[in-house]
Amino acid sequence: MNAAHSSEAVNDVEGTAEAESTLIALIKAAFPHETVPDSAYARTAVVVQRQAEESTWMRLKLAQGLDSLQALADGRFEQLSAQEALPILLRIQHTTFFGFVRQTVVVTLYEDEEVWDALGYEGPSFDQGGYIDRGFDDLDWLPDPRIEEYDGEPLQEVVSDLPAAASTSSTRGAAVPAGQSRARAGRVGNRRKD
């Protein structure tokens, strides 16, 4: 049931076109990318609304948050530039409302293949044989890695005089928890019963 058409609407904005455009503007201001198309932001807003509908608490928080956002922007949040919206986003960044929107958008927006194309991500490579065979180092915006050979003292080979049959557990003590001495660690589990 859509909240806009029910008697259970939290406010006059919930479920309206204004709420949707405010949510899209919020997502665009919080995750600004010049090359990401509006359609990707709109699809992400639909997912945020759908997930909010799964919980009455989050539905309320989303409706009240969008209403508050509009109030902070004098009813014109969707008309603000990213620079004008930033101070408002900083004011609400620690709210449950903004946290919910942010965590949903981070996953949803960046899983959108249209966003991948806009950002230059080629997508997962497992179905194409992995990154190694596909030029994993084709990022031209990173400097070439500096590869140097070791030219220091020759490394010493460590040879053990332990018999080949000795196991690691018989020659090495147990790990000692942080803040505990080796002496105390040796006593743990070996206490005498009086």
Summarize the topology.
Elements: H1 17-30, H2 38-53, H3 56-72, H4 82-92, H5 96-109, H6 113-119, H7 168-171, H8 182-187
Helix pairs in contact: 1-2, 1-4, 2-3, 2-5, 3-5
CA radius of gyration is: 29 Å
The ordered H/E elements are HHHHHHHH
Distance between the termini: 70 Å
Largest sheet, in brief, is: none
Shape: elongated
Structural class, by secondary structure, is: mainly alpha
Number of strands: 0
- Compute the average pLDDT: 78
Unreliable residue runs: 1-7, 169-173
3D architecture notes:
α1 (17-30) crosses α4, α2 (38-53) crosses α3 and α2 (38-53) packs across α5 (96-109). The termini are far apart. The chain is elongated and about 75 Å long. Mean pLDDT is 78; it is low at 1-7 and 169-173. Helices cover 46% and strands 0% of the residues. It has helices at 17-30, 38-53, 56-72, 82-92, 96-109, 113-119, 168-171, 182-187. It is mainly alpha-helical and 194 residues long.
What descriptors fit this protein?
single chain, about 190 residues, mainly alpha, 8 helices, about 45% helix, about 0% strand, elongated, disordered N terminus
